[in-house]
Amino acid sequence: METALIYGAINSVTFALIAIGFSLVYGVSRVPNFAHGSIYVLVGFLTWSFVNDLHLNYGLSVLIALGIAAVLGLGIYRFVLIRLRGMPTSEIIASFAVGLIILEGLRLQGIGGFKGFIGPNYVLKPFIEGKIEILSVFVDYQRLIVVVSGVLLVLVLWSFTHHTRMGLSLRAIAQDEQAAMMLGINSDRSAMISLAIGSSLAGLAAVIILPLGNITAEAGYTVLVYALAVCIIGGLGRWPGTILASFLVGFAMKISTYYFGAVWESVVLVGTIILVLLVKPSGLMGKQKELEERV
Amino acid sequence: MTDDTLLDVRGVSKSFGGIKAVVNVTFTLNRGDVLGVIGPNGAGKTTLVNILSGFLKPDTGRILYKGKDIAGLAPNKIANLGLVRTFQVMRPYHSLPAFKNLIVPLNSPRIKKGAIGKLGDLDSVAIDILEEIGFERDARVPYKIAGSLPLGYQKRLELARCIALRPEVILCDEVFSGLSMSEITSMVPLLEKLTMQGVTLIMVEHRLRELFRVANRALVLNFGVMIAEGLPHEIMKMDEVKAAYIGGKRSG
Amino acid sequence: MAELDRRKKRLDRSVKVRSEGLYALSSYREMAYVLAPRLLLIVGLLVTPLLLDLYWQRVLCAAGIFAMLALGFDFLAGYVGLVCLGGALFIGFGGYSAGLLNAYLGLPPFASIPLASIIGACLSTVVLLPCLRLRGIYFAIVTFMLPLFARNVIVALELFGSTEGISGLDILPNTWAEQYVILAAVLVTLFGLRRLVNEDTGLIMMSIKDNDQAVLASGISIFRYRTLAVFITALFGCFAGAYLAHLYGWLGLSLFAMDFSILPIAATVMGGMGTLTGPVIGALMLTPLSEALRGFGQLRVVLYCVMLLLFILYKPEGLMNYLERKYHQFERWETV
Fold first, then answer.
1. What is the mean pLDDT of chain A?
2. H helices then E strands: how many in chain B?
3. Which of B171, C58, C150, C314 has the fewest beta carbons under 10 Å from its own?
4. Does C296 sit within 8 Å of A108, measured CB to CB?
5. Which chain C positions have a beta carbon within 8 Å of B101's beta carbon?
């Protein structure tokens, strides 16, 4: 049982890390960033390449990779989504297409000597090797780092959105786009910034979480699915809800694994989503917007 | 409550995260009434319409329509019972000819399976309804694309959408707003004609003078609270109403 | 009293009302003008199998499958306002239903394909029901997730041959049957959907996309119409899946592959959203292209996505609208 609880907590923070970038982007710009999972994987592979092919310092590689993720997010908005604002169908399709290009592009083989990132050989080093015993359960340091950095990240984000000018304007846009625009907040600029931040958050999640296993392109789909699931359960675009939902889902999955076996993880996830959609479609922390959410 | 009572609203309240939009509203509506609902901006008039038509679920209170509690029922079910609303901001199906806009209500269960009998050709019925409400057939107005019609016609199209459902009560949410004087003067007889045909009206309105040409009772809302109810000319004399409208000190 | 209440009313028949706006066809030339594009598509589709060798005949079958999915995507996105990112769900449900009916109950393909279409469509509709009451992007998200979950569940619970799948299903009697079944299905789907969107039902669906509140206030249950629309789409999608299972005599996890979700979207955007014919043309063009690139791994997926992006950004009207404009209108430059 201790195992289930401790790993549940770690799992929950993992979900929160994965989902918070997506949630932030949707909250500010109403763009469902279907490229989220791809950016996650891309940052993992970029870091790996910088360390192993270019022999850069680990920390530096991470920073460069995150920078690239931010620029990519900016670019996605500036060159693709900005032309499709107000057409939700096209926004969804376009961001999905961008995500697939990145994800499947990583698996391309034989073009210009590019080998493609396929197979189990891509592993990032943990920041600190070794394990520690908590309540007679062995936990490796990297998992502790996941938890600590998750908590730190939430604190940093909270103070960013509550105490900085840019953060406040992002929140203003999220609450009422038209009113914010009248007060001189540029909605395109905010959306661009939110995508940049969201993408680097996806990247940050990747560098923290990926050392726990190997990097595969398929993980991009899984990560996106988890992010979407958590966001739906918590309430789309509501990041306090996202965090709450991560804990709910994280614990539910590990506890069901403990009692029934790992097989049921995805069944539990689907079940939770369907239950939430039926009972409270705006999610756990959704806003009071009955008129808008249901038809 | 008499046999003539169509709608009996008792103690309906609704708040949005702490803001009380409608507080304890109680009134009855008899068959053939024209009830004006007035009040300054933000008084909760549209919220009341949304509650009555099922788009919002009231926090407390009961809404008895012909003796049946309809509070929280789905909007389409309420419409099928004969309690139909218009929208303040109309968005007709822009790319379609005006008469095609009526195909939607004409396909509702109320019309399809109702006791009204077989209508036959829906397109013709739609054009017929539009003609009665002032879409000149000879000028081919019913065939024009809905999005290109002037505002007056669009408002009437919105009303026609309700009439197509053969309603017993129409909740009119600001049918006069945005119309020119001449458009309003042509709208008033339409509403009078509807009441002659036995349709009961609830009219949410800003334009008091035009409203009181049609209404025989009125109800004043301010900050969600009902501050007066009665005959139109009596209401306008009440101090609270004047204060609410003119913005002086609220009495009491 | 009754006599006084009644009056006789004369109404135009709607055929007359509708045809008032049309010019009567008065010559063979005019008839040809109207008929030619339609005949070109129908005859073209029916003749193509005769001109191809065995390999390209198979590609044509695949193109037919993608065309049906693309039609379904276009119908849902363009006319009902639901963006479906998981065409693979329909293929998977249809394919698995057909395969299981065939493997366990021994039904022949011509019985299992129709039956599986219906079973698969019912299943797909049921799993999508919870998000049909919601506005916004929920439908897109849920349809994106479901094929991946379906795979996980099949692997995790070791259902239906798990990762191996089931092989040795009955296949269709000969190549002609293979091709004409799917081509006929594409044509039926195309003209059936075109008919549907011009009927009252289609009109109501489009109104829901336009202004859902007014539809609700008109006494129409949006949920019912959306359910109907999803069922129709799923029916065609599951038919394609069931056909696919019997085409290769095999069912397995790759029925839930991403290709089935993304190629139809690319074909639709390329062919022109909301045109119904466009997606078919798009699928007929994209499938051979992706087939030619089969040797390059995932390059084909990247290719559809690049095409998709280019079209959505620079030619959002799509090929079909472009062609229609060229066919129906003159263009010339004038100096001002």
1. 80
2. 10, 10
3. C314
4. yes
5. 207
**Does any CB of chain A come closer than 8 Å to the CB of residue C308?**
yes
* Alpha-carbon span C87 to C74, nearest angstrom: 11
pLDDT > 70 fraction of chain A, expressed in percent and rounded: 89
The C-alpha atoms of residue C266 and residue C280 are separated, in whole angstroms, by 11
What is the nearest CA distance from C210 to chain B, expressed in angstroms? Answer: 6
Check CB contact under 8 Å for B50 and A291: yes
- Give chain A's contact residues with B (Cβ, < 8 Å): 287-288, 290-291
A contacts of C84 (beta carbons < 8 Å): none
- Per-residue pLDDT of C39-72, as tens digits, reads 888 888 888 877 878 888 888 888 999 999 999 9
pLDDT interval class at C121 (50, 70, 90): very high
Residue C168 sits at the vertex; the CA angle it makes with C185 and C53, to the nearest 5 degrees, is 50
Interface of B with A (CB under 8 A): 16-17, 50, 55-57
Give the model's confidence band at B14: pLDDT under 50 very low, under 70 low, under 90 confident, else very high: confident
Residue A109: the pLDDT is 67
**Distance from C-alpha of A146 to C-alpha of A212, rounded to nearest angstrom:** 10
Checking if the pLDDT of C17 tops 80, the result is no
Q: Measured between beta carbons, which residues in chain B are less than 8 angstroms from residue C201? A: 107
* Number of CB atoms found within 10 A of residue B251's CB: 11
Residue B207 has a CB neighbour count (10 Å cut-off) of 16
**pLDDT given at position A288:** 47
Where do we find the tokens 């022949």? Answer: C108
Determine which of A238, A288, A292 to mutate to test the interface with B (most B C-beta atoms within 10 Å). Answer: A288
Classify C223 as helix, strand or coil: helix
Task: Give C259→chain A minimum CA distance, Å.
Answer: 11
Q: What is the structure's pLDDT at B117?
A: 54
Is this complex scored with an ipTM above 0.85? no
Q: What is the pLDDT, as a whole number, of residue C90? A: 93
C215/B contact by beta carbon, under 8 A: yes
Q: Where is B8: in which H helix or E strand?
A: strand B5-16
The more confidently predicted of residues A97 and B112 is A97
C105 contact partners, CB below 8 Å, separation of at least 6: none
Give B133-142 contacts, CB < 8 A, sequence gap 24+: B133/B159, B133/B160, B133/B163, B133/B190, B134/B186, B134/B190, B135/B98, B135/B160, B141/B98, B142/B97, B142/B98, B142/B99
- The answer to whether C128 touches C230, Cβ cutoff 8 Å, is yes
Q: Say yes or no for a CB contact (<8 Å) between A291 and B56.
A: yes
User: Which residue among B16, B50, B55 places its CB closest to the CB of A288?
Assistant: B16
Q: Which residues of B touch C21 (CB under 8 A)?
A: 143
Distance CA A229, CA A231 (A): 5
Whether the pLDDT of residue A243 is over 60: the answer is yes
The per-residue pLDDT for range A119-146, each reduced to its tens digit, is 667 777 776 677 777 767 777 777 777 8
Instruction: Name the DSSP class of A214.
Output: B
**CA C167, CA A180: separation in Å to the nearest integer?**
60
Q: Give the SS3 label for residue B206.
A: coil
* CA–CA gap between residue A258 and residue B38 (Å, rounded): 61
Q: Which residue has the higher pLDDT, B160 or A279?
A: B160
Please report, for residues B48, B220, C64, the alpha-carbon distance to residue B30 in angstroms, rounded to integers and kept in the order given: 18, 18, 62
Quick one: which of B136, B215, B152, B212 has its CA closest to B184? Answer: B152
Asked whether the predicted pLDDT for residue A93 surpasses 90, the reply is no
Give the dihedral of Cα atoms B132, B133, B135, B137; nearest 10 deg: 0
Question: Would you state the pLDDT for residue B119?
Answer: 61
Chain A, window 62-81: residues with a beta carbon less than 8 angstroms from a chain C beta carbon = 80
H helices present in B164-252, as ranges: 181-196, 208-214, 232-235, 239-246
